[in-house]
Write a structure and sequence with these properties.
With 266 residues, this protein is an alpha+beta fold. The protein contains seven helices and 13 strands.
Length: 266
Amino acid sequence: MSPDQIEDAAHRLFEAERERKQIRLLSLDFPGATMDDAYAVQAALVKRKQASGLKRIGWKIGLTSKAMQSALNIDIPDSGILFDDMVFADGGTVPAGRFIQPRVEAEIAFVMKAPLKGPDVSIDDVLDATDYVTPSLEILDTRIERMNRETGKIRTFFDTISDNAANAGLVTGGRRLGARETDLRWMGAIVTRNGEVEETGLGAGVLDHPARGIVWLAERLHTYGMEIGAGEVVLSGSFVRPVETRPGDRIAADFGPHGKVSINFA
């Protein structure tokens, strides 16, 4: 993609989020776009959001399950940026009209106490750099249509990565615990919508260990001369399928001995 095309795509996404209106698949307009192009569009979008006054507070990792990777014809995770306007209080309410088609996933959030920089990062390095982990919910939204009605084509990795990895919101709650206080592979949750169980899962569903996605992120950022900063939040990837939400829904995740976290939708 040319620099002008990258800026055009970022502009479309920025306006789509501002207007709460989905745009058509970018992959239809840029069929030859690569993963590097996707992250270039994301970077241009991030610059626009920062110029509007938003502050980066961390990262999200997505596409950590084989099923989701297969659906988008990709064999590695993806990542996006968390901003300060994405934070919602545990038990709080998302205002009506805030998002377009919100969905919710349960994840383990890592809060860093030290920078984490590649190359050659290990799971132990991630755990050493972590201040604490805590239950969380990620709110997903997409500023790009999921499927184009005219062609029947669905989103590709290019659409998802360009759209800041479908990032929209985060909620943390429950207990804060040390990264080695429990076996994170067995840290899981029961996810309910209005009291009915929708999904269950364990941390091992994320690349066999939730910290492994953070290893991948640190290595990827290294190639761009970047790092995970101290104090930043990293959503390590979902171990459940996204739960669709409707106005009036309450989504809750019960992490057992590690506590509960919930969010309401007006």
